[in-house]
Amino acid sequence: MSDIMLKIPCAGHRARGPLVAAVLAAATFLAGCAVGPEFTPPRPSLPSQWRTTAPAATVASAQTIPASTAWWKAFGDPVLDDLEARAGAGNLDVDLAAERVSAARIARGAVRAQSAPLVAGQAGYSRDRASTADVATVAREVLGLAAEPNLPKAVGFDLYTVGAGASWELDLWGGKARQREGAAASLDAARAQARGALLAVQAEAARAYFQLRGLQAEHALRQEALALASDRAAIVQVSRERGLTAGAEAVDAQSRVRSLRQELTGLEQDQASLARALAILVGGDPGQDPFDLAAPAPAVSLAPGPVRLPSDMARQRPDIVAAEAQLHAATAMIGAAKADLYPQISLTGQLSIDVTSLDNFGWGERNTSIGPSISLPLFSGGRLERVVDLRRSEERSAAIVYRQTVINAWREVEDALGQIRALQDQGQEAEADLAAWRGKAAMIEQRHARGDIARAAVLSVQEGVVAAELVAVRQHTAAVLARVQLRRALGG
């Protein structure tokens, strides 16, 4: 880019005062002008209500929902409460997000500092040697004097310099104000992303915890099923030895035992893997249990809790807040780029004392200059215009990201609400099936106690009860995980 720099020095007090005052007055008048578009918070087009409503859920506005972010306390599990507290304090993803907030805060401070005057001091010494022959020759020719061949060719001298300089670029077109606006919006985005990272860690910790509790319950039922299958296989083996049962039935019974043992091994591996993952999520050692795995699991509340309105979700979900802040920053940077298209005015001042001997050092040897300079961007090959076009493209991209984030958030909430409703229906069916199996088992056990049927029939129906209990446990775990997903989709 080629600029024209015009500098207007002011030598005397009489000339300096009015000119500087005029420049400052003009700067004050133009300071209120900020080029570029003003940011208007977007208003996403969302329905007033959710299409799907979770059973027993209440839809409420943000004013009626408590501001507490400890959403997991609705489950009423003190072990989970402790895990969430540890996750918020020791998770590395949360620490990384907090550091990014610190970096954004530092960047905002750096941008703010660009608006302040720059002052720099200087001091130096040099040993100089200046030629005088040509100067003397020219002077004698001009004065019509005879040449003197014995004039010295050069003169050596010391030069001592002490001084200070200051400069201040006036923000006539609001370019620096737009940069400050963009930096502040970027900080808001980083803070929202940090809240999103914390919410993600909290949700993952809750998910891993409830999955682990579900696997523990499944493991206990599988052990019970293995004991029943082993007893049944022993009875079939005795019956086979007596010639009362075919060999194929005995083979099937033993195969069932081996299959259950393999499932138990797989469940134990899954439990160990989840325990390690949960330990890392809460900032612990992956080699240690994240909590007392032998302690019984507390009862968990399945109440869906209050559900925010769609409009409130759009204002409070961290990723939507971050996307809006990034859109704000992109909009502000359009103005910062457009300001570079206009003339820039700077006020500069210089004070120095230059002497050839320290004996002459004093205030009377000072040199001063002060005045404005104007930079006119006459030709840049289109670079400045392309930068403006690029900033506008980035603003359009940020707007698309915002709309996409809102749409995805809406879908996630609707999916979670729909899953909760479906799982409740499936859970009711599983509970009804379990009750039927328990009723059947009670009748079979009574008949066995009277001696009407053999023990093999009792074992068979008990295996059916365990299988129904296993389905109910899985349904309960899925229902809890769906509620965790709903809290995450709503932003807490």
Q: Your description of this structure?
A:
The protein is of the alpha+beta class and 492 residues long. The protein has a single domain (9-114, 176-341, 386-490), classed as Outer membrane efflux proteins (OEP) (Up-down Bundle). It is 61% helix and 14% strand. It contains 10 helices and 7 strands. It has helices at residues 13-30, 78-90, 92-113, 133-143, 175-241, 247-281, 310-316, 318-339, 383-449, 455-490; strands at 2-7, 58-60, 118-131, 154-169, 306-308, 344-355, 366-379. The strands form 2 sheets. A 5-stranded antiparallel sheet has the order 1-7-6-4-3. The chain has a two-stranded parallel sheet with strand order 2-5. Helix 8 (318-339) runs antiparallel to helix 9 (383-449). 29% of the residues are buried.
Secondary-structure blueprint:
Blueprint: E1 2-7, H1 13-30, E2 58-60, H2 78-90, H3 92-113, E3 118-131, H4 133-143, E4 154-169, H5 175-241, H6 247-281, E5 306-308, H7 310-316, H8 318-339, E6 344-355, E7 366-379, H9 383-449, H10 455-490
Parallel strand pairs: 2-5
Antiparallel strand pairs: 1-7, 3-4, 4-6, 6-7
Helix pairs in contact: 2-5, 3-5, 5-6, 5-8, 5-10, 8-9, 9-10
Summing up helix and strand content along with how strands pair, one would put the structural category as alpha+beta
The number of strands is: 7
Give me the CATH superfamily: Outer membrane efflux proteins (OEP)
* Name of the CATH first level: Mainly Alpha
Shape: elongated
Strand content: 5-15%
Helix amount: 55-70%
Poorly predicted tracts of residues: 1-16
How many DSSP helices? 10
Rg: 40 Å
